[in-house]
Amino acid sequence: MRHKVAGKKFNRSASHRKAMFRNMAKSMIEHESIRTTEIRAKELRRVVEKLVTLALKNDVPARRQAYKVLGSHTLVKRLFDDIGPRFAGVPGGYTRVVKMGQPRNGDAAPMAIIEFTREAAAAVEEAPKAAEEKKTEE
């Protein structure tokens, strides 16, 4: 029985599974959207949302914890400077999993796209609107 055992094993060893999710998290932060199987996307969501929560703290220990997962200073900088501020004041739900209609060729695995809920362009557009509202109030 698997009582209180969280996460899927994916028929891999623990180290292989950890490496797989680290690589997928790196790609997710670099490209902001990746295509993978539904089950992997749902499990990746747990990893990426924890990283975004660390980015909202924006202190040195949080950056070090994010570096342990990402292993790249440029990705940590992108996470904390670009992605984290988009979700300021948002209590959760930083990613969405969109199921694709077409299964994968070869094994017919159900595919999905995992992406951030707020896109970079939307965050850039909201900033000038907030500045305009502030000017009108004065």
From TrEMBL:
GO molecular function annotations of the record: structural constituent of ribosome
GO biological process entries: translation
SUPFAM superfamilies the record matches: Prokaryotic ribosomal protein L17
InterPro entries attached to this UniProt entry: Ribosomal_bL17, Ribosomal_bL17_sf
Cellular component annotations (GO), alphabetically ordered: cytosolic large ribosomal subunit
Keywords: Ribonucleoprotein, Ribosomal protein
Oligomeric and partner information: Part of the 50S ribosomal subunit. Contacts protein L32.
Family that this chain belongs to: Belongs to the bacterial ribosomal protein bL17 family.
Protein name (Swiss-Prot/TrEMBL): Large ribosomal subunit protein bL17
Organism listed in the record: Desulfobaculum bizertense DSM 18034
Gene that produces this protein: rplQ
